[in-house]
Amino acid sequence: MASTHDDHHHGHAHDDPTQGGGHAHHGPNTSARRLGWALAVLLAFTLLEAFGGWWSNSLALLSDAVHMAADSAALGLALFAQRIATRPANARLSYGWQRSPALAAFVNGLALLALTAWVVVEAALRLFQPEAVQAAWMLGIAIAGGLSNVAVFMVLSGGASLNERGARAHVLGDLLGSGAAVLAAVIILATGWTVADPLLSLFVSAMILRTGWAITRDSAHVLLEGTPAGFNEAAVRDELAQVPDIAGVHHVHAWSLSGEQTLVTLHAQLRMGADADATLRAIHHRLREHLGVAHATVQLECGDCADAPRNDPAHGCIPAPGSAHVAAPTPLHGHAH
Fold it and tell me: In CATH, what class is 20-223?
C-alpha cells in the first residue's frame, strides 16, 4: 500500500556564504586595507579642520570637520565590521558575522542624517545672525581638507560592498563640504558677504541628505531580509521549469546577508519516477550558473507540499501527475558543488 508520508529532499549549494564563496581569500582583506588607509587620512585632517573651523569661526569648516569626525568613526566601525565578518560561523551565529557590514552601513547612514540635520539648524540660525569669518584661514584649510578627501575617495573607489559604499558616501559629503567652504571663503574675501558661509552649508546638506537616505534605506532593506536588487522570482520559476523532472516550484524566498550575494530557498515538486539526486544537481547548477545565486537550499517533494494544509487545493502547490500520495523513498540530503 502506498505510504501517505510526504517525501522531502534537502540540498545545499556549497558556495557557502559563511565562508565568503570563491572570494574569501582576497575581498575582505583588500577592503579592510582600503578602509584602514582611509581612516588614517581622515583622522589627521579631521583635527586640522576642527581647529581651523574654530579659529576662523567658519560654519562651513566646522560642519565639514563634524562630517569628517563622523566619517572617521564610521570608517572605524566599518573596518571593525569588515574584520569580524570573516569570522567563521558557530552554534549561535549559523551564518557567522557577515551581516555586520550591513549593520555598520545602517548606523553610518543614520549618523549622516543626524549630522546633516544639525548643520541645517546651525546654518538657519546664522542666516538670521551672521557672524564674522576669517576667510583667508578658512580658504587654506578648506583646500587642504578637500585634497585629503580626494585622496580618501580614490582609496575607496575600488570597493563595491555596501559597507564601502557607505564610507564613500561619507567622504563624498566631506568633499562637497570642503568645496563649499572654498567657495564661501572666496566669496567672503571678494565681497565681505559672510552669509555665503551658512548658505553653502545648506546647499551641501541637501545633497548629503539624499545620499545618507539612500545608504540607510539600502542597508535597512538588507537587515530586513528584503529581496536583493535584480532578483526575479518569475525568472527562477521559468529557469527551473526547463528541468524535465520538476512539476512545479513554490515557496521561493530570496535575501542577502550583506547586500552582495543572493541566497535562495525553494520547494520543487517532482514528477512521478523522477531521479531526485540528478534533479537536485540540475537545480543547483541552473541557479548558480544561469541566475547567479550564491547559495541555495532546495526542498524536493513528492506529492503534496509539507507546508500546505491537508486537502487545501488553493494553497498554490502543484500536485505531481498521477496520485496525490506517492510512496516515499528514503529521504536524501545532498550537497551540490
Answer: mainly alpha
